[in-house]
From TrEMBL:
Transmembrane segments: none annotated. Histones H3 and H4 chaperone involved in the nucleosome formation and heterochromatin silencing. Required for the deposition of H3K56ac-carrying H3-H4 complex onto newly-replicated DNA. Plays a role in the transcriptional regulation of the cell-cycle dependent histone genes by creating a repressive structure at the core histone gene promoter. Interacts with histones H3 and H4. Residues 378-467 are annotated as: Disordered. Belongs to the RTT106 family. This is Histone chaperone. PANTHER family: FACT COMPLEX SUBUNIT SSRP1, HISTONE CHAPERONE RTT106. One of its GO terms (molecular function) is histone binding. Pfam families: Rttp106-like_middle. It comes from Helicocarpus griseus UAMH5409. Gene3D superfamilies: Pleckstrin-homology domain (PH domain)/Phosphotyrosine-binding domain (PTB).
């Protein structure tokens, strides 16, 4: 009976940093070839202990239907035939390969694409093992592994990541952060071409504290080499920024947007989010230096600044308004997609309007002019407030009213016309007939405007502070 050739790759990987022991293993195999399989199994088990990777058989997916099942989980939208994927098949192979571990974080809470606790890993493959390796000869992957079964649940090649956001989790008593990975074709606007593999967005949550469950690839705790002020947030930001070439981790900034209402559950903390609805789904808007994000539930949407066609205000009420964002996919620039984010509190309008002016995202009425000028219409590069007053009465340098202010003015004009129809003899019943319609809106809580707000808001009308 012929013996199976020794798998040198498995043994070399297991004992790569212990040359004398590796030499003894090969000597033992040479003297007792019947024990070769035993040494291979020991090598596989050693690799598992070193990197918590699955065994060679489970990683290779030797079970019937194993690779297909993994593809259904790893590929957004499911069934893409291997023949159609072309070079992207190498990406999937590298994602699940028994690769060199760079760092990992145990017991992270993932929200998207699966809601469960998994292990976050950053792995690296040499050029010889990956057809997708970069010019530097390495291909790196960010992936989530099931800590029980050892199976890779999902992940994304670093080269396919377009945006990484680190956002504070709203309405939590304890400070937490969500890391949001937006891969190519995963922004909710741009669809992948036919036959092209796309990877799903990934969201995981970290606490605000020392990175106690973070480890280097060798198994050394990250805290041993970290400074005393290191947190999960700072450690992951620093590590990912050092690996990413095409983007960096983006966080909210007061220079871009901050809500006038502080965090309700953490007194003293500034809030960088705005509560909004898309249809019946509640979420949070973040206005960032690279675009506008809406999350944290499926489907996530990220409006990159260069993809935004125009922004306008609609359904303006006494306490809320809607934000309409028209966006264009880079793959289909002639098709405009409309997204309506509704029930935004009026107190957020000045900050949102300043953000729109700062980045040249004009009202819908100016969209054609913006396109004609190739989005280069920012007349003022200094303080955003210099481009207009705080209430958004002027948009950019064109001297035109924003749609929100225009709608407010039309509402006031309509109320003035209704007042003209009143019986002059009832003047004595009208307190302060010379007062402005704005003052009347503040004083009258049960009038038509108030009823309209209640119809629009329902029970939420009681939760929003009046200006």
């Amino acid at each position: 009976m012929s013996s199976k050739p020794v798998d040198h790759t498995v043994i070399d990987r297991a004992f790569e940093d212990n040359a004398p022991l590796r030499k003894r293993v090969y000597s033992a195999i040479a003297s007792t070839p019947e024990h070769a399989r035993l040494f291979e199994d020991i090598a596989k088990y050693t690799s598992t202990l070193r990197s918590s990777a699955s065994s060679g058989n489970s990683v290779a997916g030797s079970e019937a239907g194993g690779p297909a099942a993994k593809k259904r989980k790893l590929i957004n939208g499911g069934a893409a035939a291997t023949g159609q994927m072309g070079g992207d098949a190498a990406l999937l192979a590298g994602l699940t390969a028994d690769a060199e571990l760079q760092f990992y974080v145990q017991d992270l809470s993932f929200a998207i694409p699966q809601r469960k606790k998994l292990r976050l890993e950053l792995t690296r493959l040499p050029a010889a093992a990956s057809a997708s390796a970069s010019a530097g000869g390495l291909a790196e992957y960010l992936r989530a592994r099931n800590q029980g079964s050892g199976e890779v649940e999902f992940g994304v090649p670093l080269e396919k990541i377009q945006h990484i956001l680190c956002l504070p989790v709203p309405e939590k008593t304890q400070r937490q952060f969500n890391f949001c990975i937006i891969p190519e074709y995963g922004d909710g606007i741009t669809s992948a071409p036919d036959g092209q593999v796309s990877f799903e967005p990934i969201v995981w949550t970290i606490p605000d504290g020392p990175p106690r469950t973070a480890f280097l690839g060798s198994g050394t705790p990250a805290m041993e080499s970290a400074n005393l002020a290191e947190t999960y947030e700072s450690y992951l930001r620093r590590t990912l920024d050092g690996r990413l070439k095409q983007t960096k981790v983006v966080c909210p900034s007061e220079k871009e947007f901050v809500s006038p209402t502080p965090e309700a559950h953490r007194k003293g903390d500034k809030a960088y989010h705005v509560k909004a609805f898309r249809g019946s789904k509640e979420g949070f808007l973040f206005f960032l230096s690279t675009g506008i994000f809406f999350g944290f539930k499926k489907p996530l949407i990220f409006f990159s600044l260069e993809n935004i066609d125009s922004i306008s205000y609609t359904s303006v009420l006494q306490r809320t308004f809607n934000l309409n964002i028209a966006a264009r996919s880079p793959l289909k620039p002639d098709e405009v997609q409309e997204f309506e984010l509704s029930m935004i509190d009026q107190s957020n309008h000045p900050g949102i309007d300043a953000y729109i002016k700062k980045h040249g995202l004009q009202d819908a009425s100016l969209a054609e002019a913006r396109r004609a000028k190739k989005l280069n219409i920012n007349g003022v590069k200094g303080d955003p407030a210099a481009s207009g007053d705080d209430d958004g009465a002027v948009s950019g340098g064109d001297g035109e009213e924003s749609e929100l202010v225009k709608a407010q003015r039309e509402l006031e004009d309509q109320e003035d016309e209704e007042e003209e129809d009143y019986d002059p003899g009832s003047e004595g019943d009208s307190d302060g007939s010379g007062s402005s319609s704005e003052e009347e809106e503040e004083e009258v809580g049960g009038g038509d405007a108030g009823d309209l707000v209640k119809e629009e808001l329902g029970s939420e009308a009681e939760e929003v502070e009046e200006d």
